[in-house]
Structure formats: C-alpha cells, structure tokens
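Is adenosine-5'-triphosphate placement plausible here? Inputs below.
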Amino acid sequence: VLETEARTSSLRPASTSVKISNRERVIFPESQITKGQLADYYAAVAPIMLPWLGSRPMSMVRCPQGRAKKCFFQKHDAGSFGETVRQVGIAEKDGHEEPYLYVDTPEGLLTCVQMGTIEFHGWGARIEDVEKADRLVFDLDPDEGLDFENVRSAAFQFRDILKSIGLETFPMLTGGKGVHVIAPLVPKAEWHDVKDFAHRLAQAVAQADPAHFTAALPKAQRKGRIFVDYLRNQRGATAVMPYSARARDGAPVAAPVTWKEMEAIDKPSHFHVGDEKELIKRAASKALSGWGRADQVLPDL
Ligand code: ATP
Ligand code: MN
Ligand code: MN
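Reply from A.M.:
I modeled the complex. Tokens:
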C-alpha cells in the first residue's frame, strides 16, 4: 500500500508558481491546442520527464507565436528565462566556456513553456560530467516515402545487433518520422570513443545491409534507405528527450515504448499532447518502469 501511495503522489501534476500568459493562444493550429493545454501537458508529465531531461545541457525549439510561425533552436541565453532555468559553463572546442541551459525542476520546465518552448532536446551527458556519455542513441531516419514498417524492422535489427555485443536497448517513438534506439551507459566513456563506436557500428550495419541502411551523410545516398544518424553521439549533439512535445502537425510527443509494443505500433506519432494521463499511467506500469535503465558500459567493437 505504501509503495502505491508513494508512487501515485509523486506522479501528480506539478503545481508550480510559474504564471502562464496567453493560455488561449493556439500553438498547434491543426488540432487547436493552446499554450495553456501545452503547459498543462508539461506540468502533468514533469515527474516522468525530468528524470531524463533534468540536469542535462539542453536545447529548445521555441515557437512563441505557435508552430506555424517562426520557430528557432536555442541553446544559450543571457538570463531572460530567470533563475529556474539554470546555466552550466561548458568549454567549447577553442577552450573558452559558454553557458549552457538546463532545468532540474518543474518550475524550470514550465518557465521554458511560458517562454514559448515546444520541444526539449538534451545532450547525451549530464551536467555533473559533460565529458562522459550516459547514453548512446541510434537515430533511425527513414528517407521520404519509406513506411513505418521499415523503421520498425530497422529498430529491431539494431536491438539485436546491440544485444549481441552486450548492450540492452530501449525504443522511443520520436513523434516525428522515426525511432530512437537508446542504450543507457554508466558514464565512463569519453566522447571520442562514444562517437567512434557509434560511427563504426552504423557503418558496419550499412555495409552488411546496404539495401536498407546507409550511414552516409549526403542526402543523395539515402534514397529509399534508413539513414543511421550516428552523429547524435558526439559531444554537444542533442536528441529529443522522452515526453517532449514536437512542433509538428497534431502535437505529437516523443514517447518511450517497450520492444513488445513496438511489434504492433504503426506510427512514430502515436502519442500526443492530451495523452498525459495515459503516458503517466504507462510510465508507472511494470513493463515500462525499467525503461531506459541498465548498468552497462561501452563494449569493444
Ligand atoms: P524524426 O523521427 O522525425 O527524425 P528526430 O527528433 O529524430 O525526429 P532529427 O531530424 O532526426 O529529428 O534530428 C535528430 C536530433 O538532432 C534532434 O532530436 C535534435 O536534438 C537535433 N537537431 C535537429 N535539428 C537541429 C538544429 N536545427 N540544430 C541543432 N540540433 C538539431
Ligand atoms: Mn531522427
Ligand atoms: Mn537525425
């Protein structure tokens, strides 16, 4: 009984002191979803989202006038977000430090939403040690015209390959066109090794199955194939975080799923803003409660 109580109380929507202005402003014209509804979504998922986004250098996609108007990717700020959106100095290639943003509370998260943020993207490392990756992500990007069936079987191929070298993985629907296959890591390996591993694995897969995969950057070489975007695994690169909304048609969200569920899922935009109750319930379920967690290190390749 105690355990259930503790669990449900920690999964109540966050009530914060953040004032959301223009709650009636339509942010997603196709589905008439407003800024207020988006803020309510994020308040609800804050407890299940912050374990992933929290304390990670982040980038945001901001669309202050809604997703149909001007949107921009933002990773630095001079202080306009206030104190709940925190800053961490990170050395750039030339050695000088730049302040990166992170949140670690529902207030920080909601402040970003108040400032017009729709999407939250995070580094593959946490602020405690930004030089050590705590996740690998294989971002499977289908060429135009490929249906989700192809993405799904590609995801299973990656699961099997990574499993065979000792890495457990977890699938995430991006809410866009593809799937991210994520291998959590104990933060030990440096970026150079992580990127090298991801690059070599992507190349090996593309060489073994060139009809379905490519790891080549030029778009022309992606025709009819799935591009294995291994570049998510380099220092400073970001990936969309679990439960982030997407600035796309219909207000889809990035959603963790189980491999079992993947067998039957028909599109990467399966969950949307408005599904927060279901997402919270799912996150507490036995099948998903261990999602994204595994004590494992980068294997030799
Ligand atoms: P989809 O399933 O549609 O591919 P996605 O989130 O994987 O969705 P990608 O276009 O593959 O989208 O991008 C992968 C990641 O690259 C994003 O999650 C984001 O973190 C990062 N990214 C995308 N656009 C930019 C940008 N303009 N500047 C910096 N990083 C970006
Ligand atoms: Mn992608
Ligand atoms: Mn990509």
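Short version: DSSP finds eight helices and 14 strands in the chain.
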